Amino acid sequence: MTSGDPVTQARAADLPAILTSYGVKLKKTGQAYLACCIFHDDSNPSMSVYEQGVWRCHCHSCGANEDSIGVIQQLDGCDFKTAVNRLTANGFERKDDRIIPEKLVTAAKWKHTKPPKDSMPNMELKDLGKPSRVWCYRDLDGEPLGYVARYETAEGKTIRPWTYGSMSANIKPKWESKQFSYPRPLYGMDKLAEMPDSQILLVEGEKACDAAQELYPMLCCMTWPGGSNSVKLADWRVLKGRDNVVLWPDNDPAGERAMLEVGRYLFGVDAE
User: Does the N-terminal peptide bond of residue 115 adopt cis geometry, omega within 30 degrees of 0?
Assistant: First the structure.
């Protein structure tokens, strides 16, 4: 096919423009969008709209996966040829009033940085004592970036991150019990270089990640810091171009919602 081929032209159509022209509302999510699925009765937005060479949409609920041609077939109830003709004949424009912008992440004053070699924080806290478990976050070269510690209390577990940094460029960095600054690194990132061709298994939480790695040593098991409410704060760009990512949610509504959100961000960085 050449660039002048009608089917190629139709597939290159701007899908957000098409959907908003038909009255579909989109919500910006990273480099992708989120919408109520047009392929089934959907009141809880579950369809990602993303660009990977051409625009596509994928519903995380019903499994529909289509390009612009398939979208027109669905919206207009027409056949393939008619959809191609309509896409090449009509100039769709994005309706910005139907696109909800992504809520900006407020930059924290605390900025973490790579700690000095062989530097470790004293993670014993006056009110919590010593941690019962510690997980080390590493960069792609395997060098430590920071830690996440678990403490046991009478009420249950408490999780505290430990990072090396400061509140200002004029203040000397040190170890503090503070979260990684945005965008936050992924746990297990160092295994990406060790296992470049391995399937990636994404789970929620460091404890679950270690358990999954023990059960499936042939997989590259990873997670993100902060739990189900912190998906958008993680740096998913390290998975760009990976087409072998499996999402394993916690068995509860919050876990399922978190993995749906992860999927939308992965589509936005060209990972499936």
Answer: no
CATH number of the domain bearing residue 245: 3.40.1360.10
> Are residues 95 and 10 part of one domain?
yes
Compute how many other C-beta atoms are within 10 angstroms of the C-beta atom of residue 218.
9
Could you read off the pLDDT of 164-175 as tens digits, one per residue? 999 988 899 999
**Can you tell me which residue has the tokens 């090449």?**
88
CA dist 200 and 191 (Å) reads 10
> What are the backbone dihedrals phi and psi of residue 34, each rounded to the nearest 5 degrees, phi first?
-125, 140
Q: Which amino acid type is present at position 46? A: S
Question: Are 13 and 20 a contacting pair, CB within 8 Å?
Answer: no
**Structural domain for 177, as ranges:** 107-182
CA geometry: angle 202, 208, 212, nearest 5 deg: 70
Tens digit of each residue's pLDDT (9 = 90 or more) over 22-47: 999 999 987 889 999 999 999 888 89
Q: What is the pTM of this model?
A: 0.72
